[in-house]
Design a protein that fits this description.
The protein has 151 residues and is α+β, with helices and mostly antiparallel strands. It has a single domain, classed as Aminopeptidase. It contains five helices and six strands. The protein has a six-stranded mixed sheet with strand order 1-2-3-4-5-6, with helices on both faces.
């Protein structure tokens, strides 16, 4: 398996994994418009200035994730998606561990992420990896989202 910085072509593949507006909102948030188009998606998620990582095996894209950097010693993992044909095979766990290692900057104390409250598989995976739901959720979190942190 190859963990690497994402390329624009990876987004083209990811577009095929997002079948409808609800999935798009869950994955990318309210700023991304559906139906997805490559150039618009690239601009909407600011791929040109936000580190994005991919996991591939034998040139097959397995997963993609952006890392938002914050000055308050926190990195936020955003737009996490696993290839539908690879789900349930441990790819999410492997990818998440690689991302945690990547986020290990000396000045980074916390890694955060948002997950759809109905995505119990992802919530349980993050809990197994040490993420917790802090007692106080940020005020700008959408009502269908759970905010989690790893310190």
């Amino acid at each position: 398996m190859n963990f690497r910085p994402s390329i624009k072509a990876d987004l083209k593949t990811v577009i095929s994994w997002i079948p409808d507006a609800k999935s798009c909102l869950s994955w990318a948030g309210p700023k991304v418009r559906f139906p997805l188009e490559l150039e618009q998606l690239y601009r909407d998620i600011e791929s040109y200035k936000t580190p994005t990582y991919s996991l591939e095996n034998a040139k097959k894209l397995l997963a993609l994730n952006q890392i938002r950097l914050f000055k308050i010693k926190r990195e936020h993992s955003a737009r996490i998606v696993v290839n539908p044909s690879s789900r349930g095979k441990g790819i999410g766990r492997l990818f998440r561990k690689e991302l945690i290692n990547e986020a290990g900057r000396p000045d980074c104390r916390t890694i955060s992420l948002n997950v759809d409250k109905d995505n119990l598989i992802a919530i349980n995976l993050y809990k197994k990896l040490g993420f917790v739901v802090p007692p106080k959720q940020p005020g700008d979190i959408r009502k269908n989202i759970v905010y989690m942190e790893l310190e």
